[in-house]
Specification:
single chain; two-stranded parallel ribbon
Length: 366
């Protein structure tokens, strides 16, 4: 064939290109072990004992980021199941890729108990396809028996109702629905479904019925005085209760509720609801700490004196130095007074108050 034939020239070029491709692949194969050897000899981290590297990885966090650094880091991260026992997702829209990634992530945890944190910041007006329901159904179907801590934040409409849910080792749960009005529970956390649950935080969600009697820590935000009283009545083992914003409800002269186990009570109210309506209905013989955040409500001094906490924390409370002096005198058992952003107080008066016992103002000891 004529050497000047374009077809012959093209064939010769294609043959040369194929030869060079093979040579390039061979050279890359020879280069890879040399690069690994150089990395191991010059990278201080890779020369550390595996046990120490594991400790560093444990403190570092996200195994996906660690595994993206190099093959050696990826191999080490993939061989540490405890790195995958914390499942975290924060997104505006859940896709099918998230569902697949979740399944792979949970599998790498190799049967360890899981701490799940899901944040779905989906706009209510968004009509794009969303796989949140598929994600949660996959999670609970395959791994409900391994979930020890669960935190879910997202629009209630995107969260599926899952009947017959069983979370046998769940101890901590936090559910948040960023909607203007409280919604029914998307997850049925009952004494049967979560027999070991002892810490529950609900934001824009009502207390489930029946309420798990094992609860010792409870947060309700927002809530009403009636709901708070009902919770204390139904939970004899409750030791820590956080309420707020607190709103009024039609409760006229409620019967006193004795909560002998309650040691810590925190109330926040940015409305004009009087916290004394709740405090005066409580008998708390073992109360250790009372935390009040009341920017728009008069300070319930008489109620506080009656409860006699050992630690009192006041934030954004309208209380003057004279009233604080009287409060200190009326509470001889008060061992710690903490003031945060309390207006109208002078340093000279604060120092005088500090002589009566430990006092902190905006985090600094006076």
């Amino acid at each position: 064939m004529d050497d000047h034939d374009p077809r012959a020239q093209l064939a010769a070029l294609e043959s040369e290109i194929a030869r060079l491709h093979k040579l390039l692949a061979k050279l890359k194969a020879q280069r890879a072990p040399l690069k690994r050897a150089i990395n191991r000899s010059r990278a201080p981290f890779l020369s550390l004992p595996v046990e120490l590297c594991s400790e560093i990885f444990t403190l570092a966090g996200n195994p996906m980021i660690l595994g993206a650094v190099c093959s050696a880091w990826r191999a080490l991260a993939w061989a540490m199941p405890w790195l995958w026992a914390t499942v975290t997702l924060d997104t505006t829209r859940v896709t099918a890729t998230h569902v697949e990634l979740l399944a792979d992530w949970v599998h790498r945890a190799n049967g360890l108990p899981l701490h799940v944190e899901l944040g779905i910041r989906r706009e209510p007006s968004t009509h794009a396809p969303d796989a949140t329901a598929d994600l949660l159904r996959t999670l609970f179907r395959d791994s409900a028996h391994r979930i020890r801590a669960l935190a879910v934040s997202g629009p209630c409409a995107a969260l599926p109702h899952i009947p017959h849910l069983h979370l046998p080792i769940l101890t901590h749960a936090s559910l948040t629905c960023p909607c203007p009005r409280p919604h029914p529970h998307p997850l049925a956390l009952t004494p049967t479904s979560a027999p070991l649950l002892h810490s529950l935080s609900l934001h824009n969600l009502p207390l489930p019925a029946p309420v798990p009697p094992t609860l010792t820590h409870l947060t309700l935000a927002p809530t009403t005085i009636a709901a708070a009283l009902a919770a204390l009545s139904a939970l004899p083992s409750l030791t820590h209760l956080t309420l707020g914003p607190l709103t009024a409800s039609q409760v006229l002269d409620p019967a006193p509720i004795e909560a002998h186990a309650l040691t810590h009570l925190a109330i926040a109210s940015d409305t004009r609801t009087q916290p004394s309506e709740l405090l005066d209905a409580l008998v708390l013989p073992n109360l250790e700490a009372l935390d009040l955040t009341l920017p728009n409500t008069p300070f319930p001094a008489l109620s506080v004196v009656r409860l006699a906490p050992r630690t009192l924390r006041l934030e954004n409370v309208r209380v003057g130095a004279t009233l604080l002096q009287q409060l200190r005198a009326a509470l001889p058992g008060l061992t710690n007074l903490q003031l945060v952003r309390v207006p109208g107080l002078e340093r000279k008066m604060l120092r005088a108050l500090g002589l009566l016992g430990p006092l902190t103002y905006d985090g600094e000891e006076v």
